[in-house]
Amino acid sequence: MVKTIQGKIYILANGKAIEAFSAERKDNIGVELRDHIKMFHHYFFTLDPDDKVIQANISNALNLADESAKKAFDNLKEQGYYNNLISANISQEIRVDSTKLDINQYPFQFRCYATQRLIRSTSTVTRKLITQGYVRNVSRSDNNPHGFLIQQWETLENSDEPLKP
């Protein structure tokens, strides 16, 4: 009994002991990829009307993607998108609804379906967002804990949802 217990590892989380299991990365690749894609979109699209918050979130997002995301950020910045968020006191948040993933080819292709909310003091606009790209393996780091890099990222649709009666 002692040998069996000594061969196990437990993690304490919120006062509860959880047994840890070792698994190959390939066993959880879909889960890790979806979380990486979700976190990238969270950082890129969850913004408050504060330049420091915008810079911090975008910096986190750019650690998870290649120059295609930097190019999208630069285009939005050049168009005055971030200045408009600040001057109009608009908060923006995103919810990833689903991610279609092909783990049978490498780099892994994805399509992300999400809902954006632009929150103003007087109204909230809901937008439908669809993006796609590829994900390849890179080294894990503090800035990129999953060890993936989104590449060739593009927005396919970003349109206002019709108002509900």
Describe this structure as you would to a colleague.
The protein is an alpha+beta fold. 32% of the residues lie in helices and 37% in strands. The chain contains five helices and six strands; from the N terminus they run H-E-E-H-H-H-H-E-E-E-E. The chain has helices spanning 2-6, 29-45, 51-62, 67-78, 81-87, and strands spanning 9-13, 16-20, 91-102, 108-119, 124-137, 148-160. The strands form two sheets. Strands 3-4-5-6 form a four-stranded antiparallel sheet, with helices on one face. Strand 3 and strand 4 (108-119) form a beta hairpin. Helix 2 (29-45) packs antiparallel against helix 3 (51-62). The mean pLDDT is 90. InterPro entries: Conjug_transposon_TraK. This is Conjugative transposon protein TraK.
